[in-house]
Amino acid sequence: MDFWTGQLSYIHDVFKPIIIAVLIFSPILLAAFAVGFYRRLALWRVGRSDSRSGNVLARVRTTLGVALAHLRLLSEAYPGWMHFLIFWGAAMVIVGKLIRLFSYPVGIDNPPQEVFLYSSLMSEIGAVVIIIGGLLAVYRRYVLKPSRLDTKPDDTLIFPWVFLILVTGFLIKGYRIATSDADPTDWATWSPIGYGFSKIMATFATDYRDQILVWHRVVIHTVPAFLFGIYVFITRSRIQHLWLSPLNIFFRSLRPKGELVPIDLENAEVWGASKIEDFTWKQLLDLDACTRCGRCEDNCPANLSGKALSPKKLVQDLREHLYEVYPYPVKKPAETRRDMLSEVITEQVIWDCTTCRACQEACPVYVEHIDKIIDMRRNLALERAEFPESAQQALMSLQSRGHPWRGTTATRTDWMADLGIKVLSEDSNVDVLYWVGCTAALEDRNMKVAIATAKIMQAMGINFGILGVEETCCGDPARRMGDEYLFQTLCQKNIELFKGYGIKKIVTTCPHCFNTLKHEYPQFGGKFEVVHHSELLADLIRQGKLRLGSIQGMKVAYHDSCYLGRHNDIYQQPRQVLDSISGLTRVELARSGKRAFCCGGGGGHMWMEEPAEQRLNVRRTEQVIEAGVDVVATACPFCLSMFEDGLKAKEKEDSIAALDLSELVVRALTGQPSE
């Protein structure tokens, strides 16, 4: 009890100056927050409207999971646990301090209330955890120096400032214990760090300790803490991600990952984005929410292949442009500005993207890069008519011939000769439409995939047919290359054709067709059941209808197609198909699943010419070679073509084969030798 009497005396003497400090600085801190928030809100509101308020429960659930449990951050161990320690350490310190701050007026500090004691211990543990996390952060930023991190002055300032606040907190506790009339050892359990500092304080003269009794907490601890908060909110410090990140996560897109937002071609004032105001408010919030962690850059295959695109730099350049056009206070835009599509973001950067979604999958705060890039492409395509020459030729072929394969002499029915496949114009009594796709129908290597898929469906007794010469491109290349008008034209034509034949279910071998038919055709009234052939094969195997034999001595690596994996979360079904073939050994590539390295064919790049030293397919092929496999298996015609080309470039076409899942299944069905 003597111990508590001493402590109550201390609390009474110190409580008043603390309240004075809080009363002085809290309004300033709140004003700083209001000013900072209003400025950003005004900036975001210059963007177009975008409804992001639906499904609140799902938004809250993900926000809490990402912000509190660090679900995305922990995908990388070192930075993930580093951030986890700092975040939860700070939470423990803040909660502990709030409990003790309000303990005096509500009386929970009176003996023997354990809440006060446990809050003291919690704060000390939290402070130690922050220091550990902070040291890991300092070591990573200034010793390891990963290339993806850029260090600005405020990044360096944060470390000593936070350290000062924590150390002064320990000093205060040490002083408090040292000036107590009770035995300081009573505090050893509840404030072990403070107890250690009290041993130092005990060496000071009593008169000197008494002189700083009243104002020490205000001067050396409370003031720096409040000044730090004010600095954070009136500047553009990265520490603002404490509130910007959860806000951005909450307003993330809930539409299917692979779905692009359509343009209202008849009513839109501008097609795509040529000015910063042409982005939506959420796209502008993205710019502020970016923490510059560089995860997107570390996972971008274009950047890793030496191209100009850096997702991180793209977002940061747009952010700087936003503040350049709308300097504080936000009233009206600057009279002169740089052209966003040539001077802020170069055309090369805009066209480098394969829309693989590796950046968005890696981003811990759900920044949406692809929509911005596509919006800029749309403006280049529809209003400026500025394309890479090879892209323009592919789009011209789409317009005139209904497919992007310029120069081909094949027809859409050449591959099916003598297979006895129904063509809907002759017999529309089918249960399933096999959507062959441009590449499988018209490109020699991929015709074998169409044949294999058709043979499997025939063997399973599936009543299917094809459109034949009536089939035109689904429109994916046009949409990803920015020609929204051409996409919508092709889309509406196909939907009308499907409805005319009463189509209900569609099977396709192309993930790009799959994604477009499944997620983007419903935007225009085309709602159909769409199944990728890897899903069909896995389902037939699961039901016991498709029984496979063996392929002995084959070592296979499965390559995840971006539009099957990251865009549609289909990872296990292709692997299940491979695992059902006895004698086959499946290995994982170094980059697989959500971290799979793009083949380079998406976003229209299947038809774009690229410098030899920057070709993504060659980089991915090198990873396959390093795995030491006999076969790289795919479930995408673009990936298959890219691997065929990459293996030739590396002169490995005789030792490593690129095969589609359907081709391996046919081999297992027929017992054909693996070679």
Tell me what you see in this structure.
The protein has four domains: 2-248, Fumarate Reductase Cytochrome B subunit; 276-382, Orthogonal Bundle (Fumarate Reductase Iron-sulfur Protein, Chain B, domain 2), CATH 1.10.1060; 404-537, Rossmann fold (3-Layer(aba) Sandwich), CATH 3.40.50; 538-670, Rossmann fold (3-Layer(aba) Sandwich). α1 packs parallel to α9 (216-234), α2 runs antiparallel to α10 and α25 (533-542) crosses α26 (572-579). The protein is built from 29 helices and nine strands. 55% of the residues lie in helices and 6% in strands. β8 (631-634), α28 (637-649) and β9 form a beta-alpha-beta unit. It is mainly alpha-helical and 675 residues long. The chain is elongated, with a radius of gyration of 31 Å. The mean pLDDT is 88.
Note the beta-strand portion. Answer: 5-15%
Question: Which value, in Å, is the CA radius of gyration?
Answer: 31 Å
**Second rung of CATH, namely the architecture of the largest domain:** Up-down Bundle
Which structural class should the secondary elements be placed in?
mainly alpha
Helix count equals 29
Low-confidence stretches: none
Number of domains: 4
Could you tell me how far the N terminus lies from the C terminus, measured between alpha carbons in angstroms? 86 Å
| Count of beta strands | 9
The major β-sheet equals: 5 strands, parallel
How much is the average pLDDT? 88
Mind telling me the CATH class of the largest domain? Answer: Mainly Alpha
Helicity level, as a percent range? 40-55%
For this structure, the CATH topology of the largest domain is: Fumarate Reductase Cytochrome B subunit
